[in-house]
């Protein structure tokens, strides 16, 4: 299980915009790296460091668990679709399409500020979602 967690965790990456003055770099981290107490993210441009408190790490850890649950259900979700009503009828959207084609945006409070995190997960196999 640990190995699965770290394997998927490496593929589940989040990024957020650096909040330093005048810096517009995106800082990318993998969810697998966040678990340790002393984890820090470093801006590749201005080298600002970001320490995540235990509350935020806990949210991101649960996000990783969610990603793993979704990954484990890929074959089920691949056969499942959501009906969306549109003018003149309904369209069926495969769940898998929703999961992979929409960038997930999470807004979390960091200190007193709200920060947007983008979450991207690569499908386990390119054939999973056609
Ligand atoms: Zn920066």
Structure description:
The strands form 3 sheets. This protein has a 4-stranded antiparallel beta sheet with strand order 2-1-8-7. It has one domain. 31% of the residues lie in helices and 35% in strands. It has 130 residues and is α+β, with helices and mostly antiparallel strands. The radius of gyration is 17 Å and the shape is globular. Helix 1 packs across helix 2 (54-72). It is built from 4 helices and 8 strands. The two termini are 27 Å apart. The longest helix is centred in the middle third of the chain and has 19 residues, at 54-72. It binds zinc ion (ZN). Zinc ion (ZN) is lined by residues 18, 20, 23, 25, 43, 45-46, 48.
Distance between the termini: 27 Å
Order of helices and strands: HEEEEHHEEHEE
Class of secondary structure makeup: alpha+beta
The number of helical runs is 4
Mean pLDDT: 76
Q: Mind telling me the C-alpha Rg? A: 17 Å
Give start-end ranges of low-pLDDT stretches: none
What ligands are attached or bound here? zinc ion
Helix content: 25-40%
Shape call: globular
Percentage of residues in DSSP E strands: 25-35%
Number of strands: 8
The neighbouring-strand order within the major sheet is 2-1-8-7
The description of the largest β-sheet is: 4 strands, antiparallel
What count of structural domains? 1
Give a brief rundown of this model.
With 130 residues, the protein is an alpha+beta fold. The protein has helices spanning 2-11, 54-72, 74-77, 95-101, and strands at residues 12-17, 26-30, 40-42, 49-51, 81-86, 89-94, 104-110, 113-121.
């Amino acid at each position: 299980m640990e190995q699965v967690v770290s394997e998927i965790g490496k593929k589940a990456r989040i990024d957020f915009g650096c909040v330093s003055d005048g810096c517009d770099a995106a800082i990318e981290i993998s969810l697998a790296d966040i678990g340790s107490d002393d984890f820090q993210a470093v801006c590749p441009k201005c080298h600002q460091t970001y320490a995540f408190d235990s509350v935020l790490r806990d949210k991101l850890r649960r996000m990783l668990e969610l990603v793993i649950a979704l990954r484990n259900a890929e074959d089920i979700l691949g056969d499942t679709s959501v009906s969306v009503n549109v003018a003149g009828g309904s369209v069926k959207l495969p769940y898998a399409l929703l999961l992979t084609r929409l960038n997930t945006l999470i807004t979390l409070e960091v200190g007193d500020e709200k920060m947007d995190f983008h979450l991207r997960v690569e499908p386990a196999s390119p054939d999973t979602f056609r």
